[in-house]
Amino acid sequence: MENKKPFHLTRSAVHELARDYGTPLLVVSLSEIERNYMILRRHLPRVHVHYAIKANPDPRILERMIAMGSGFDVASDGEIMLLHRMGVESDRMVYANPVKRREGLAACRFTGVKYMTFDNESEIGKIAAVVPDARVLLRLRIDNRKAHVDLNKKFGCGADQALDLMHKAKDAGLDVAGIAFHVGSQTTLADPFLTALDITRDLFDQAAAEGLPLYILDIGGGMPIPEHKVKFNLEEILDQINARLDEDFPDTEIWSEPGRYICGSAVNLITSVIGVTERNNTPWYYLDEGLYGTFSGILFDQWDFKLETFKTGPRIKATFAGPSCDSLDIMFRDRRTQPLEMGDLLLVPACGAYTSASATTFNGFPKAKSIVWEDVEEEYGTEPGTDAAAG
Ligand SMILES: *Cc1c(COP(=O)(O)O)cnc(C)c1O
């Protein structure tokens, strides 16, 4: 058992940080990033981690992941060039977008990135024309209706097409290296991973029999972070995956592409109540962070954020809206909360994945500033135990 409590600011730290830095404020714990990475390394010792940077491309997080020796899952020329400028060697990146822009392939040619995924025939010619020595992984579709965000609706070829596509890639001169899948984001069970491993083991056998010896298996992302009302045991899930990998893929190089798991628990948001009113007998609280900012994860990631209020006593149902002038900018309706007043602070833990990454500056509101907790911990750190009341 890791017995790890996710990164969580104390009440006094929240109030002092808000006083000194203003709100909305994102507080990023790089030690938490490191702990999350180490848990994966410990439970999946053979697996090369490729952090999916779309979940949170904060340069300080990237620097820490680079320093720890992680690889990276990239999806665009922008992400490839960002890491290239930070000194990441090309063989630490996998271009895991099965449908690539011409500019993305040009960035591969420029930087030397060779590992990439594909899931359709039209991609093979595109890759062969620009990166003829590419090492390609076939992206397989894994049906998983239980996934929080099911990426298999958009990507992946069916197992029945896999061999045909791999032969076509080989015929185009590409090095067919292996198979990649993504069981879906925030997968809280081992089963979808184990099912995917069964399917890929069959495909590895068939491919070998047909003269296509595969040597890389990429089990994708999807590892879960603690979530409101959802119970699971991460270590157990990882240990089950690891046992199956040892049994079925003892000689294969194994990769994974965690995004949410690395960064999700590592950021806390502090936001303030900047307006209070009542409509149809329901209290409305306007916050200084909204759907166009960090809470964009509600729309793009269908995430249900937890709000902590630092208040005690009976709860009411209220509506929470953001600061912009758009009526779409409403985060929560009928959300149970202690009654709030102007100037009250709210803490939103586990705010690191698919949050600031998709924030905008709509309506002239700047993105929330962010600071690194370990840079200020000595000044603001207090004894744990003064945690907020759960909202
Ligand atoms: C988004 C994405 C990931 C990361 O997924 P998480 O659920 O955040 O772990 C990994 N691989 C690919 C190809 C992705 O598109």
Polypeptide structure, described:
The protein is an alpha/beta fold and 391 residues long. The radius of gyration is 22 Å and the shape is elongated. Strand 3, helix 4 and strand 4 (93-95) form a beta-alpha-beta unit. The protein has an 8-stranded parallel β-barrel with strand order 2-3-4-5-6-7-8-9, surrounded by 5 helices. Strands 1, 10, 11, 12, 13, 14 and 15 form a 7-stranded mixed beta sheet that branches. It has 12 helices and 15 strands. Mean pLDDT is 94; it is low at 385-391. The site of pyridoxal-5'-phosphate (PLP) has 17 residues, from helix 10. Pyridoxal-5'-phosphate binds at residues 52, 54-55, 73, 96, 151, 182, 185, 220-223, 257-261.
What is the percent of helical residues? 25-40%
Bound molecules: pyridoxal-5'-phosphate
**How much is the average pLDDT?**
94
For the secondary structure, the number of strands is 15
Instruction: Going across the biggest sheet, name each strand in turn.
Output: 2-3-4-5-6-7-8-9
Radius of gyration, CA atoms, in whole angstroms: 22 Å
The number of helical elements comes to 12
Percentage of residues in strands:
15-25%
Element-by-element helix/strand order: HEHEHEHEHEHEHEHEHEHEEHEEEEH
Secondary structure class reads alpha/beta
Terminus-to-terminus distance: 28 Å
User: Could you describe the largest sheet, including whether it forms a barrel?
Assistant: 8 strands, parallel, barrel
Stretches where pLDDT is under 50 for at least 5 consecutive residues are 385-391
